[in-house]
């Protein structure tokens, strides 16, 4: 009898444990790639979300490796393994639609974050308006040049929403300065190394003619600075701008080498995760991240909004030290 009671107790414990395991929410995050610091900050912020740290959410962060086909395969995996929700930062605005379709067909909500996808099936989106940042960064370069001279543009991966929208913003600012000539405009795929190589070539092709560099992200702006330094030219004689507010860019802003605009990776990531949990639990959830209190102009609104817009923050001499202090 005693053995029977022990066996029953063990079975009950196993069933209880299994029930708890089944209650855990399984969420996948599918960023376009994890090579650069910005998306590393984004992914780390996901892991630091209160619901993940408490064990309420089982989070898997995939590496899209800057390849739309890789991301589609990752979606197939998440659909097969019956994830409760997916957070998506696509490499390609159009190719990403097929991945969203596959999840929607399986009844899995997809929350966009950071980069956009051309799909009406996206459940919700948390990101920043890249057209605004593209205008802001180009304007800082053009203002420094007094709307005169020659510039080069380093673009992100062609076909990604950030590249498309930031270029639109770049062109809007350039239209206000008709005397400024764009000598070169080419993608460096968000890569510091690719940007350095391009800038080295451009400095050779246009000796003493380039006055400004519009880098659609900080990595590329920093690559341009490295090329300028390697050529023995004073980088401070150029007007150089980037976007994202990564750590090296913050240091470069402090040194007076460039300007940058902070894109809040933490807010985009944790906001998207709150929404993913909300939709996975059919609305039975209150947000746990503190980002909603930080950005009062982006209210939670009971998780009902289709788009949540995280504002941009220009990096300045007044806030750069505070921003650097947040980096470990």
Automatic annotation (TrEMBL):
The keyword Signal applies. The keyword Signal applies. Keywords: Signal. Pfam families: Peripla_BP_4. It comes from the Bacteria. Residues 1-21 form the signal peptide. Residues 28-281 form the Periplasmic binding protein domain. Its main location: other. InterPro entries: Peripla_BP_I (IPR028082), SBP_2_dom (IPR025997). Belongs to the bacterial solute-binding protein 2 family. This is Sugar ABC transporter substrate-binding protein. It comes from Rhizobium ruizarguesonis.
């Amino acid at each position: 009898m005693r053995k029977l009671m022990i066996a029953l107790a063990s079975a009950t414990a196993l069933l209880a444990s299994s029930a708890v395991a089944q209650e855990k929410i399984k969420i996948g995050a599918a960023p376009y790639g994890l090579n650069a610091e910005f998306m590393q900050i984004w992914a780390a912020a996901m892991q630091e979300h209160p619901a993940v740290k408490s064990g309420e959410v089982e989070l898997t962060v995939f590496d899209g490796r800057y390849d739309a086909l890789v991301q589609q395969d990752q979606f197939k995996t998440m659909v097969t393994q019956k994830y409760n929700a997916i957070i998506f930062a696509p490499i390609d605005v159009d190719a990403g639609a097929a991945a969203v379709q596959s999840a929607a067909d399986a009844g899995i909500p997809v929350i966009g974050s950071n980069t956009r996808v051309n799909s009406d099936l996206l459940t919700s989106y948390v990101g920043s308006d890249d057209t605004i940042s593209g205008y802001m960064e180009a304007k800082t370069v053009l203002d420094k040049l007094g709307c005169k001279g020659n510039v080069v543009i380093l673009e992100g991966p062609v076909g990604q929403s950030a590249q498309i929208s930031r270029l639109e913003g770049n062109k809007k600012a350039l239209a206000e300065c008709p005397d400024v000539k764009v000598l070169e405009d080419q993608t460096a795929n968000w890569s510091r190394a690719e940007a350095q190589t391009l800038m080295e070539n451009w400095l050779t092709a246009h000796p003493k003619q380039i006055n400004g560099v519009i880098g659609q992200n900080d990595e590329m702006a920093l690559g341009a600075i490295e090329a300028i330094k390697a050529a023995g030219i004073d980088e401070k004689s150029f007007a150089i701008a980037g976007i994202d507010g990564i750590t090296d860019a913050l240091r470069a802003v402090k040194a007076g080498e460039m300007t940058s605009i902070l894109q809040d990776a933490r807010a985009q990531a944790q906001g998207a995760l709150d929404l993913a949990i909300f939709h996975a639990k059919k609305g039975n959830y209150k947000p746990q991240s503190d980002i909603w209190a930080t950005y009062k102009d982006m209210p939670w609104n009971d998780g009902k909004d289709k788009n949540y817009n995280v504002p941009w923050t220009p990096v300045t001499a007044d806030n750069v030290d505070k921003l650097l202090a947040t980096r470990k």
